[in-house]
Amino acid sequence: MNIASFFRFFRWVLLGCLASTLHAQRSQESLGGEWRFALDPVGAGIEQGWFQPALPVDKWDKVTVPHCYSVDRRYHEFTGPAWYRKTFTAQRPEGARMFLHFDAVFYTARVWLNGIELGVHEGGYTPFEFDVTDALQEENCLVVRADNSWSRTTLPGAKTKVDYQSLNYGQMYPWMNYGGITRAVFLVCRPALSLDKVKVETVPDLATRSAALKISAVVKNRSADSWDPRELKLTVSCGGKRVPISFRISDDVVAPGADGRVQAEANMTNVQLWSLDHPVLYRLEAHAASDALAIDFGVRKIEIRGTRFCLNGEALSLGGANRPLDAPGYGSMDPPEILERDLRLMKAAGMELSRIDHYPVSTELLDWADAHGMLIIAEAGNWQMTPAQMSDPMMRRKYQSQAREMIERDWNHPSVIAWSLGNEFPSQTEEGQAWVRDMRDFTRSLDDTRLISFASNIAARPSITRAEDEASQYVDFVSANIYENHLAALQRLHALFPGKPVYVSEFGIRADTVADEGERVAYLRRAMADFRQCADWLMGASIWTFNDYASIFPGSNPNGYRPWGLVTPERALRGMYRAWQEEFSPAILAAKRHAAGGLEVTVVAREDFPLRPLHDYRLRVGAEVFTIETLSPGETRTFQAAPASEGFPTKVTLESPGGFPVMSVDLK
Q1: Are 449 and 494 in contact (CB under 8 A)?
Q2: Which residues of 462-493 are buried (b: 16+ CB within 10 A; e: fewer)?
Q3: Judgement on whether residues 412 and 557 belong to the same structural domain of the protein
Q4: Is residue 522 part of a domain?
Q5: pLDDT tens digits, 597-637
Q6: pTM for the full predicted model
Q7: Pick from 47, 555, 586, 604: CA 20 to 30 A from residue 202's CA?
Q8: Residue 361 and residue 235 share a domain
């Protein structure tokens, strides 16, 4: 081994140690940063051999990956194929397998390494990878052709039949087709025997504070020796402290060159449950031969009890938001500073149960939700597909592929409590009902630990008079997009499906359809009054939308945005946000001064909607802090605060255990 090769090998070992405290051959190296880039508006790149390593690219532009070419001023709103190219050095440790991993490329990616085509991936929001063990060299040329075009066969895409008076209405979808390598790219090194698709399931017993722990994984054995699963080493920790657990592990030997499955079971005691107020995370560390990985998971119980959604046995009815993946200058890249700011604003305003997007979100968003206590209904693919599309075997395969990639990536996140099968498709048709039955069964075959629903704009219509006429009969709870006449629509839904909770997956009003923000606030308060009359069966309500989003859909604002948001594109708070924070606070605050001095503050936990118990909240009155250990729905707690030396405080704030100010009263 020469000096250069030695240092490249050393870098792999070092990266493996830095990426995890687990000492193994598994490691990854970022391939982000500077890439070369060129548009291909007439689609000449393949014919002209743009994937060939010898092609001169000194005239190509330089961009930084992750990259969204749709927001680059040089390529603004370009639709079509664009090419990315990067050279890098690599060293493969002896016996290891090497992979190119993409977190997301929108929409279709065709990939070459050193002139060898690796394959094609379709789907703009889910991860994919290629085994490049045999194609990798010390000096490498990686080329990606990213195409953000849409058609009647893409997901999302155009409709095959237009049912609207405006003939162009169905030829596009209402968010931007932001193209590019929009999420991270890695060169991944795994040992010859590696673990894949590791799934952690927990079944808690709320009465005994114990839980059954089930672990399954695919074992890929590319070594020359058989592997006995009883050699698998599993440890669990919480907050850095080892949890004593004894595992029972399956004993089916995995032969050389084969894929096998290993399963393990254990019982956990003195379990700390994952919840909105206390999102406790455990960590599983798995060692198999020279492979090792770590997975965070939570122990929590989600269930439907009659018309109530329950988390850990407690009935919840919560607010939420749809958050289109869009920010000025970034498009769909979702940088950490935008993501952190948005989710903090959402959590502080009671947006804790969200069907958050029409497509798979980033793992960074779900990691944040896991760590801070948010509930997510995850959705893939089907936005307003027509009956012809839903019955097309090719479209079904595409949806299943993208849904599988989402589910297998996200099934260990405790924040994900349900899978949605789509949005606003004709669920009253035979094709729509067959879709829900079949995709429900497909989803459960991958993960049967979560609830299943879909967002319907049909179920609440007066034309639906029997439950068997609409596909909501086949799912665990009814999701409905309702923009007006909320009370009548909810009452119809409850009459149709009296045994199911109802979730308002969309409601809202655009900022450019009213005279001022006061009209939007009045709309919100009317909606909330209707929701509270349906509190016994209302699971939650999610605003459309948290933020404005760019669009070329008919009816978009001339500035290029659809202004549905509680916040502007730049994240300035509108009056609707502040009204939302007040209406969706889990408690009501009242404060009054005594004539003789002092301040009396009353905290009342709402008993209708939203509905949730408060655990370990803090009441801040000036410099004084009062802890509310538990406040159940309908309960009241009163606190007496003495005036500070400088006088009475000017604000009283109710704060969640995570430090989010969920309600404030100005005393001026």
Answers
A1: no
A2: eebeebebbbbbbbbbbbbbbeeebbebbbbb
A3: yes
A4: yes
A5: 678 899 999 999 999 999 999 999 878 899 999 999 999 99
A6: 0.94
A7: 586
A8: no
β-strands 108-113, 302-305: how paired? unpaired
Cα of 211 vs its chain's centroid, Å: 26
Are residue 330 and residue 455 in the same domain, yes or no?
yes
Longest dimension (CA), the chain: 87
Question: Which domain covers residue 53, as residue numbers?
Answer: 3-190
Instruction: Please check whether residue 569 is in contact with residue 561, taking contact to mean a CB–CB distance below 8 angstroms.
Output: yes
In the chain, the number of structural domains is 4
Type of residue at 70: S
Residue 74 to residue 384: CA distance in whole angstroms: 32
Which CATH number does the domain housing residue 556 bear? 3.20.20.80
Distance (Å) of CA 95 to CA 91, 133, 193, 228, 559: 12, 10, 9, 19, 56
As a whole number of angstroms, the distance between CA 442 and CA 448 comes to 10
Mean per-residue pLDDT over the chain, rounded: 92
Paired tokens of 448: 């049967």
Placement of tokens 């001022």 in the chain: 516
- 3-class DSSP state for residue 92? coil
Q: Is residue 103 part of a domain?
A: yes
In a domain, 515, yes or no: yes
**With 70 as the cut, is the pLDDT of residue 12 above it?**
no
Q: Quick one: which of 125, 163, 120, 173 has its CA closest to 144?
A: 120
Does a structural domain hold residue 328?
yes
State how far the Cα of 38 lies from the Cα of 36, in Å rounded to an integer. 7
Q: In the structure, what pLDDT confidence band is assigned to residue 594 with cuts at 50, 70 and 90?
A: confident
